[in-house]
Each structure stands twice: as structure tokens, then as C-alpha cells.
Amino acid sequence: MYEGQAILPAAKNMKQFEQLLDSSYQYGVFLDTHIAQLKSIYRMAGSRNKKMFLHADLVHGLKNDEYAAEYLCQEIKPFGIISTRGNVIMKAKQKGVLAIQRIFMLDTIALEKSYALLEKTQPDYIEVLPGVVPHMIREVVERAGIPVFAGGLIRTVEDVENALAAGATAVTTSNAYLFNEYKR
């Protein structure tokens, strides 16, 4: 299970990944990578005792379906898988990998569809985007009863604090400034 790190640094390139490796953070997220890089990246992370979530929808060269999720769980063995796809989340859970259902709070209809999906998939965590709407984070936490990561458009320490105060377990961000500046 994930344990108490307020910021989940999200590496969107190798430079950010290298910064994460050199940081004191234990947990992080891979956002955008190529299938051919996965094994070496996870080997590097493991050698530095980093536990990395993988955004399965953003792996180039890999379709984001349950077969891809099965491959990732068996061959790459990420700490957790993030996806917008219910079948990917259910496969990750079946394989014993932490499952993070990513939802977009675009409007009421999208949010209601997300609640129905959450009932079906029962993920370990939810990642809500955008993460800068504290009253909606609070609603998702209360209604779903599943821990929430807040992500998207997080740009300031105040954004981080507002998301956490609204009930988010952690904030995912690719903003390198926040990796270094926010300490809790």
C-alpha cells in the first residue's frame, strides 16, 4: 500500500526521472514513456528503492487494454498502475498491483459516469483531474469512499495545500518546482 508522501512527483521525461532518483522521495509516477524503456527504467528505480506508479495509458507502443495491463503486471511489475480504463484497473487488481482509476471532473455528466465506473472497478485509489477544485475533491472523497490523489494544473504550494486540506491523500505533479519546494 502507498504510505504518506504528500507529493507524488510525476516524471514526464528522463531528466525528471533522474531528478526523482536523486531525491528523497520514495514514490513517484511515470507519465510518458516508451515500451522499450520500461524494463531498464524500473530496474533503475528498484536499484534506488523507488516505488513507481505507471500511467498505463501513456506508454507509447502499448495499447491500453487488459492484455497490456497483464503484460505490465507480469513483466514490468510496477508498484501501481494508473489508467482511465476500467478493464485495465480491474486487471491490475486481479494481478495484485495497486490500481489507480484516473477520472476527469469535466462536468456533472462526466462525474456521474465516473462514479458508476468507480463502483464497478473498486480501485485502490482515484486520481482526480483537475486537482485544483477542492470542493470537488472533497465530494469525490466522501461519495466514493476511496482515497484520492489530486493531479492536473497543480502549480503552487497553495494548490497542494488546498487539495490536501480537501481530503486528497497526495498530489501528483510534474512541476519540478513543487518537487523541491513542498515538504510535509
Short summary of the structure?
The protein is an alpha/beta fold and 184 residues long.
Account of the 3D structure:
- This protein has a single domain, classed as TIM Barrel, CATH 3.20.20.
- The chain contains eight helices and ten strands.
- Helix 4 links the parallel strand 6 and strand 7.
- Helix 3 runs parallel beside helix 4 and helix 4 packs parallel to helix 5.
- The longest helix is centred in the middle third of the chain and has 14 residues.
- The radius of gyration is 15 Å and the shape is globular.
Tell me the radius of gyration. Answer: 15 Å
The amount of helix comes to 40-55%
Low-pLDDT regions: none
Instruction: State the order of secondary-structure elements, H for helix, E for strand.
Output: EHEEHEEHEHEHEHEHEH
Instruction: Look up the CATH topology.
Output: TIM Barrel
Given this structure, which CATH class is correct?
Alpha Beta
Main structural class: alpha/beta
Counted beta strands: 10
Name the strands of the widest sheet in spatial order: 1-2-4-6-7-8-9-10
Oligomeric category? single chain
How confident overall, as mean pLDDT?
96
Main sheet characteristics: 8 strands, parallel, barrel
Described by the principal axes of the CA atoms, the overall outline is globular
Q: Helix count, per DSSP?
A: 8
What is the architecture at the second tier of CATH?
Alpha-Beta Barrel
CATH superfamily: Aldolase class I
Taken as a percent bin, the fraction of beta residues is: 15-25%
Q: Quickly count the domains.
A: 1
Head-to-tail CA distance between termini: 19 Å
